Amino acid sequence: MTRKSRRLWLVVACMIGLGSAAALTLNAFSSNIVFFMAPSQVHSKPPPADRTIRLGGMVVAGSVHQEKVKDAPVAIFDVTDGQAAVTVRYEGILPDLFREGQSVVAVGTVNPDGTFRASEVLAKHDETYMPKEVAEELRRSGKWDPRFGKAPDAASWNTMTAADAPKKPATQTP
Amino acid sequence: MNPELGNFALALACCMAAGQAILPLIGASRRDARLMALAPALAVGQMIALITSFACLIHAAITNDFSVQNVAANSAVSKPLLYKITGVWGNHEGSVLLWAMILSICGGAVALFGRNLPSALQARVIAVLGGVAAGFELFCLTTSNPFARVWPAPMDGQGMNPLLQDPGLAFHPPILYTGYVGFAVPFAFAIAALIEGRVDAAWGRWVRPWAVAAWCFLTCGIAMGSWWSYYVLGWGGYWFWDPVENASLIPWLTGTALVHSAIVVEKREALKIWTVLLAIGTFSFSLSGTFLVRSGILNSVHAFANDPARGVFILGLLALVIGGSLLLFAIRAPQLTTGGLFAPISREGLLVLNNILLCSICAVVLTGTMYPPFMSLLFGKTISVGKPFFDATTIPLAIPLMVFMGFGPMMPWKRAQMWPVLRRLWWAACVTGVALVIATFQMRDILPVLATATAVWVICSSVADIAERLRLFRQPLRQSWQRARSLPRAVFGAAIAHAGVGIVVLGIAGMSQAAHRIVEVHVGQSEMLAGDSWTLTDVKPAEGPNYTALVATIEVRHNGRLVTTLHPSKRTFASQHQTTTEVAIHTNLMADIYGVLGDRHGDDANPTYVLRLHYNPLAPWMWLGGLIMAFGGALSLSDRRVRVGAPRRAKTVDVVVVQ
Fold first, then answer.
1. Is A90 a known ligand-binding residue?
2. Residues 6+ apart with CB under 8 A from B47
3. Which pTM was predicted?
4. Using CB atoms, which residue from B343, B360, B517 is nearest to A18?
5. Contact residues, chain B, for A21 at CB < 8 Å
6. Is residue A27 part of a domain?
7. Domain ranges of chain B
8. ipTM of this complex
9. What is the pLDDT of residues B298-315, one digit of tens each?
10. Is the distance from CB of B3 to CB of B88 less than 8 angstroms?
11. Within B443-488, where are the H helices?
12. Mutating which of A2, A96, A98, A105 best tests the B interface, going by the most B Cβ atoms within 10 A?
């Protein structure tokens, strides 16, 4: 075994290892990336039924209610970004930090009838914390700027439009 | 007074660390024995100063000194004493101080236990540790000072996040941090070797115990973190592929590769450049893992702070440490001579394969973790990758790793034949075949079946390795016992650690077969899950020190016989307006019975309760296996070779004189 042939072996082994890692990664990326969508995006461009997405927004106040399907509790609530609302059905225990009027992220698929079937509902540890995607989406739709105080009550959101969103105070700079 | 003393001790430690970084380096390059002798003294002094500083912060927390902002923001009078102490490192400022303190203890350990090192090497190692420490102590002092005061002092603190009020979390961060920071020592050895321009077998032998020690702590820390999320977060899961978890897994993977490649340096003087690169890489991943995550760049539940000043400081520091060391590597690595030759089929060959596979897994996990933040930074697209991605990429790479793991310890060095090795492993292969058949009938899905078979293979081949070395059943037991006593403990350590990996994988495979049900029941109603009958018999309110709770009583019966009574509860913390779920777990080491109390529905006269019931086969094996792995590492650290007999440097002609 000469130095040259050993180096050849090493290079071949490395190529196989990293090559298979790259192939696996690309393959997994094509099928397993989960996109974030706001309710208005779900309305305008519904994703295919087998595609898992993350739906984020605020839980509409007063929309949470429970149903019982074969002894299993199902939580039903509306998630809104101010432009549109999507009804979410979730079979399971809602997280401790789940509240009406606060932000939430639901992972699941969109049913053909436009409702969302969640396999997981995430509310973050800190009650003042809003998932970055949700804050970003709300800011983009002009509903709320996270830098200027608390989020408005989600009950008013479906009636709000971008035009009557709270104006940014002129004196404050980011 | 006390917080000022702590602040002063921290500043003093920072100054000593700066001295420790500069003076011994000058001494080592001028061969000035007095300057080099400063290194251990400064390292011990810095360690004492930082321990004092940390003790002052704990004292402030215990005595409810709410004029200290950190205590006011994270503690409260009503908090139990244990959590007043552990709350010190449950926040950003305190955890940075803890980090710095552990780093200084590492420096002190090199000063105290490294007396058999050549003085120039020891001085350089301590200097590198001092440089890193000085940077982070400056970060602590300027941007996240734990001793900052508030005026006027509040009457009571705001209290800690109730999720963190848990005994598991009391010890998880210190152990995990010790693992992260412990890799600073191999890093310092690598930098010192690059400065000297010399890596040889003795270097490998010095660096390996430090890497193994750090690896043991990191393994324990990850296992504890996984256990914590299993029983605290109450989702019945044990690993969420959260960026923070990945940040601990990535250095663990490269650290595991380092522990193995250092063996090749020690025994065969090969893979030297690669080992140095791994030592640099592992610590770089530890650093970026702790601090990128904590600075909130990766969106994660664990992020403490979103302060831009801190972010800029940390990024600068990371760029300096990582970029500087890689630059040094690029300049100096070509000067390191390459070592011994070996055939592809040999112990070295399999260790190389181990390194390639571990680094491939690491690359995959790194890609999956960094891709979403980069996509949102560059293209503004919000995406996430989760469990399906990581399962699809890591498991196919981990299975060949486990298969080769069975062969590795059996292989002779330099050049090996497959046939004798296979002959010694035939019974392990038979047991694996039987396990494969049983698993095929018992388990759903193909991957858990393969994982079970490879795990059995790893455990059996570890046993076969030891049995072979002892000539068990081939000569009288008394002689085998004599052999066992003279066999190095490192051999047992390696076999135990490998078997631990097998046990972890069996646990993970078992968990993939877990069953769970979510039910809504009245008091007195029964539900079936996995052959057991679960009855909710009672729900009562209860009072805790700083919370009120609702406690359920669930009786689990198997064929009418009472297996256990579970008491899951829901706690409401008035001071933070937060509720937490307390899971109830009963284990018989073969399976966990896991109950969670959810919401209460219906009117007061006839309430119903949501319950989540889990049956998790082999769940405890995951953490048990982690502890066994760490125990194997610790056993090999107690080996006689590590404790006595200062390794001598190879007698090469010393021509590579550093300018």
1. no
2. B104, B105, B107, B108
3. 0.89
4. B360
5. 360-361, 363-364, 393, 397
6. no
7. 1-160, 516-620
8. 0.73
9. 544 344 445 667 777 888
10. no
11. 446-470, 477-486
12. A96
